[in-house]
Design brief:
alpha+beta, 4 domains, nine-stranded antiparallel β-sheet, six-stranded antiparallel β-sheet, 17 helices, about 45% helix, elongated, disordered N terminus, disordered C terminus
Length: about 625
Amino acid sequence: MRLAFLNGFFVCAFSLGAVATGYAADLAADATAAKTEFHAVGPAELGAARAAVRESVQEIDAWLARGGRATVDGWHEHLQWAGLQAQLKEGATPDPKVLQQNLDLLDHNTEGLEGQRFAKLRSNLRRYVHVVQLAGDAKLAETHAVRLDGLAKSLAAFGKTPTAVEAHEIGRTIGWLDRGGQNVGLVRKIREQYQHPNFFVDVSDEFFNAGTDEEVNEVSPIREYILGTDIHGTGHTVGILSNRLVPSDDKAVFDLHLIGTNYSRNVGDNRGVTLHTTGVTSLHGVKRVYMDADGLTYGRASAWACANTTVTSICAKCGLVERMAWKQASKKKGQAESIASGKARARLAARMDSEGASRLAEAAENYQAKFRRPLLRRDAFPQMLKFSSSANSLIVRGLHSGVSQIAAPGEPPALAGTHAIQVRMHQSAANNMTEAMFGRETLTDVSLAKLMEDLTGEVPEELKITDDKDPWSITFAAEQPIQINVDNNMVTIAIRGNRFTRADTKINKAMMISANYKIEKTATGSKLTRQGEVETDYVNQQRLGLGEIAFKTFLNRKFTALFKPEIVSDGLKVKGRWEKLGKLPLATLVADGGWIHLAWDVPAKKAEKDGENRVAANPAAEEVSSN
């Protein structure tokens, strides 16, 4: 039986591989045949591309004008608007280098550039720069044929071994075709084949709740007016504030719950009669929260409360009045409790709206300020980012792939059972994201030291900033600034720069720094062991001068300190509300076929202790929750 199953499995796997290879061969043949579909780029294409940029510029000017002259002048100066407008005038000869400078200013992490108007301008300006370059190529037909020959080779090679290098070549060529309006059908077919989602995050309800559950234990004054009685006293509320995931396909949804009990001692005054009471009020409030690519939204809270009061004593001026007061208290007990329950419901709903909104507003702003807006400013926000939820997990699915990029060539590896957090990321997600974020950016010795401090908590001695060390910098290449290739539990990391400085020395030549690591899982974490030395080489340069050799040696020393012989992790430390969990042990680590699959667990003792604390804080919570 087992042999039959294995035989079927291998036959199926072989068949799927043959289908993928065959489809890649078909695409390669299509690329070769597409050479006959070339069309020239001339004044009509230039005019249309320029008109699109002009329209975007006019839209932004009209929008800026609403903010007044200071707003207009500030943005015009920052974006060198006059230079851009000069390039767009009728009869002007567009200079792609000048246009690229304007594009670089627009493609920056500057507050305000995340808006749709600026995104539209960036897209139109990129296309215009490209069309200007195409129109200036006297041998464009030959260039087109060479590009398609290269594309055919890359597609054939990628179908056999989908490496990051071949992915980059395919993406760059279809982007070149796309922006030039060439071979639309071929570009669409390639995107359909190699445009699968390339990152997945699954968070269990156990982990989600562990970071959001809070004990409630607070004392607050009470002042009410019920059935003519002025009541004042003190209430003590104990319970649990927790989250529960709600099944939803189009958004991640969870409910913020407060389940608890308020114990009170009160004194009531009514026309010379004083009542002493105790109260026990069961409370349950709910506030629903929605999460999608745009951020967090939430509705108004709803609440349930049930008050039960006991009159412990009544004091009056005479016995007759006191006896009458006891009768009235007994007669109106149900009505008074109903009113008290309603007031408790209103207080709880108002409290959850106020405190819940404050708590959620911080998370919502963090998402916008630290993730969404910075990526939008660089046109680096995922093309698809879908949140969903089940009763047991919060799920994120993403696709990051620009015009000149492709994504995953197939489906991700299957989930490895149930864990606190699982991340499955294809190398294309990392490569595409870093190209959008770091392309043409400059990294200084100071910013690198800060980055190391933030990521690892320490800075290697060679990278520390001291008076006896020369300041230095690297300006990343526009394409493939950082490239990662993953296969057979090995990862290759390559950094490309086009400009380097050391003190007063400047090197304006392309250079690549790379390191290979073997990836292994340890008992609680991971270990990356460097294979061989860090390699630092000039790109496409055979003969080097003494100064170039000296700079290469200097740069190699710096990056050898960055790419340490061993990089060891003993678990995942999550910041914020989850920091109390400590480090999460690594349960799964697989790096193969372009995919990195990681899974972490909540420490067993911590999870058990949290469960005990939740029941101890409010024994009724589990019963109410299950109902």
